[in-house]
# Entry
Amino acid sequence: MADKDDPCDLLKGTPGYEYCRGDHAGGGHPGPGPGGNGVTDGATDHVQQLADSLVKKAIDLVAPRDAWAPKSADSGLYEPFLWLGQHLAVAIFVCVVVVCALTAWQGAPRLKQMGASTGWTLVSVAGMASVPGVVMLLNRAVSAAFTTAFSSDESTLFGAISDDMTKGADAGNPLAVLLILAALVVALAFATLVFMTRQLAILVFVCMAPFVLASLARDGDMAAVKTWAGRLLGAIFTPFALLVLSPFVALTKGSLVVDAVLLVAADALMLRMIFHGIPYFGPKVARGARAFVEGRTDNRVARAVVRAGVPDVYERENSPARRRTVDTPGRAIHQDRGVLLAAYGVKQRKREGQLTTASTITQVRERAARTAEITRARQQARTAVQPQAPGSAAPAAGTTPPRTPGPRRAAPNPQPGPGQTPNP
# Structure
């Protein structure tokens, strides 16, 4: 009777019969009968596999092993930039040699300048060819370290989530499972945004390397190279911002609901990664993501998360340093371009400072509300200290008391001029 009740008998004579009857890598068919795990066990396995795939995809997006940037100097994308950078460095070196030859009567200073230009030209040409390989090694090291720090065992964030899916206190609770899956899907969306912005930033700065390094051929000015290296390394090491969550993994382990709360905190951190770690367009992309979320949901928790990841700021177009301001992409690019041109010996015109139109409107509205509050407080304070005559009624709150005229002063008697009779 057991064989007659076996649903696998319907597949006799087909390739699926052995799969149905067999264990198939420890699983078995998701139904009752011989070789089956039962409907509930099969659904649990599918949920576990879905969660594991979401975790793996999130890690691959936040810190991928392979970047979009070229991996070698002979790459078809990087080779034109390398050719232009090398020829630009050689052209600068030739110009320096010509100037030193024309002013050779100055002696040692010109010889020293020509020697420095020769050495820095060789350094810049060699550095151009090594940038893609160095960036590739750094990116792979960051990817390996991030994977180890977040999914190597049960003490890491994603490792604890996978372990709690089977051994947690609420592992059998469908609501908790749905909650953690929803949190993983949302985290995957933010990880995709991190992936796109980070990969584009690394690609752009790697392709800029020949033009930045060529500026060394003039006199070895490192200002532009330091700025460029800071932007590139910031984009490469951005995923390590999530290490802030590592100390809290031990506190949340054992409960899928608390794991979901930690994933929500990771979403806010990923927005911060974009806001602070991606040069030029990072703040604008993060603010766009916040506006997208706020425009499509009224949930206070979701709004609080995106506001924690993207703070309220004024967008600075061309202005001096102010409280809580960020540069627009145009201003940020203009400033870095000024540093690069200065390394080439070209002075860039300094722009006058001003806020953007949207930030100015926001600032005026905030100041108007604050000004009204200050005016109301001053009126109330003036009313409180105003002396009251006996039997007079106190003025209503928020109104300005009438002023009483004081004694009028006599006009001063002007001194008579020469030849004039003084007034009596």
